[in-house]
Design brief:
Number of strands: 4
Low-confidence stretches: 4-18
Number of domains: 1
Order of helices and strands: HHEHHEHEEH
Shape: globular
CATH superfamily: Glutaredoxin
Largest sheet: 4 strands, mixed
Strand order of the largest sheet: 2-1-3-4
């Protein structure tokens, strides 16, 4: 009987743990670590400015240092068009809910800097004009102001 109870408990726990979204996890971690959240809406396989944003800013060591230094939690809400690039159904649903709340106009790329509670601090429509260093420095300045 004890084994059955344990198995049911573990199964229920794993379902509930997986039900928490990436954005909720980012908010929780940001709150615990006193970090900001960067939410990026992209079309990774069709949006040229999105691809440039990721290549020239998001994937750079300068930007990645923001996470390593506990300044930033990064969440990418990707909307690829190709069937082979589609995210799982859960992530697709989460991305749609995030878009409904934070990007109702459907702008790509659209990047939002948020506090741990989800309040918008700054937005970038399209490809930011800054390079990776200037973009990261701007985020650092918001972090230092809070």
């Amino acid at each position: 009987m004890k084994t059955i109870f344990t198995a049911i408990f573990l199964a229920l726990f794993s379902v509930l743990a997986n039900a928490q979204t990436r954005f909720e996890k980012a908010k929780e971690t940001a709150s615990e670590q006193n970090e900001l959240i960067l939410l990026n809406f992209s079309g990774s396989d069709w949006c040229i400015p999105c691809i440039k944003l990721h290549k020239n800013i998001i994937e750079t060591e300068t930007f990645k240092k923001l996470s390593a230094e506990h300044i930033l939690e990064y969440v990418n809400a990707d909307f690829p068009r190709s069937k082979k690039n589609q995210p799982s159904a859960d992530i697709k649903k989460e991305n749609e809910l995030l878009a409904d709340k934070y990007n109702p106009k459907g702008i790509f790329p659209y990047t939002i800097l948020l506090n741990p509670e989800g309040k918008v601090l700054k937005t970038w429509e399209g490809l930011p004009s800054e390079n990776a260093t200037a973009f990261s420095d701007e985020i650092r300045s918001f972090y230092q102001k809070k």
